[in-house]
TrEMBL record:
One GO molecular-function entry: kinase activity
Record SMART domains: HATPase_c
Source organism of the structure: Bradyrhizobium vignae
Top-level taxon of the source organism: Bacteria
Keyword vocabulary terms for this entry: ATP-binding, Kinase, Nucleotide-binding, Phosphoprotein, Transferase
Domain Histidine kinase/HSP90-like ATPase stretches: 129-222
Higher taxonomy: Bacteria, Pseudomonadati, Pseudomonadota, Alphaproteobacteria, Hyphomicrobiales
Pfam families associated with the record: HATPase_c_2, HisKA_2
Protein name: histidine kinase
InterPro entries, per the entry: HATPase_C_sf (IPR036890), HATPase_dom (IPR003594), Sig_transdc_His_kin_sub2_dim/P (IPR011495)
EC number: 2.7.13.3
Catalytic activity: ATP + protein L-histidine = ADP + protein N-phospho-L-histidine
Length: 222
């Protein structure tokens, strides 16, 4: 009798296992799509900066342009290392990780475009998977703002805040740009929403005359 009774449970267990694998596969595809999307966008920005610097190099010291390019490439490498090194099963210290991420974003993406970056990061710990997926989302939002929010770069600023409140982590990316288009549109937004679902996070965007503000609310997992 025990053998007969075990079959339905075994079947349910197999179905749950297969569903879990399907979820993991879907999550991994989301991360891959975001990585490819991000690589395409950042290489486009790098190419534009190279054209700008070396077009003007005839009237300036060529070695300065080469040094700037080298620093940006190193910063891009640091950025991608932070975004891809997600296999550590242990918890990640939030403050040093995201301060390093913001520094790499600033050096690789924002400073060459004449955009200032301010960051306020609280201390704490997050599971590695949550931490790295939140980092992917933050990077997408910052890069999107750098590309679209500042047709006039004068006084351009992106502010990043990450804090813990009432059992959740709240991440905000705000710019003082033109706010001409919705912050959650296009291919990047679909990937953002997919990654948000994979970590049970919620996205909220606001656009106004003072710029664009996107907030990610993610439950803290012990």
């Amino acid at each position: 009798m025990s053998g007969i009774g075990a079959r339905p449970n075994d079947h349910v267990a197999r179905l749950q296992f297969v569903a879990s694998l399907d979820d993991q596969s879907h999550d991994w595809e989301l991360v891959l799509r975001e990585s490819h999307h991000r690589m395409k966008n950042t290489l486009t920005m790098l190419g534009a900066s190279v054209r700008r610097d070396f077009t003007c190099a005839a009237t300036r010291d060529m070695s300065l342009a080469v040094d700037r390019l080298e620093r940006r490439i190193v910063a891009f490498g640091r950025l991608y290392q932070l975004l891809s090194d997600s296999h550590d099963p242990s918890a990640v210290a939030v403050e040093p990780f995201f301060e390093n991420l913001c520094g790499a974003l600033s050096e690789a993406v924002l400073e060459p475009a004449g955009i200032r970056c301010e960051a306020a990061i609280e201390s704490g710990r997050l599971p590695a998977a949550q931490c790295h997926r939140l980092a992917l989302m933050l990077t997408e939002l910052v890069t999107n703002a750098a590309k679209h929010a500042f047709p006039n770069k004068s006084g351009a600023l992106i502010r990043i805040e990450l804090r813990s409140h009432d059992g959740a982590w709240i991440c905000t990316v705000a710019d003082n740009g033109v706010g001409a288009t919705g912050p959650l549109q296009g291919t990047g937004s679909r990937i953002l929403e997919g990654i948000a679902r994979s970590i049970d996070a919620r996205l909220h965007g606001e656009v106004g005359q003072g710029g664009t503000r996107v907030t990610i609310v993610m439950p803290a997992i012990a």
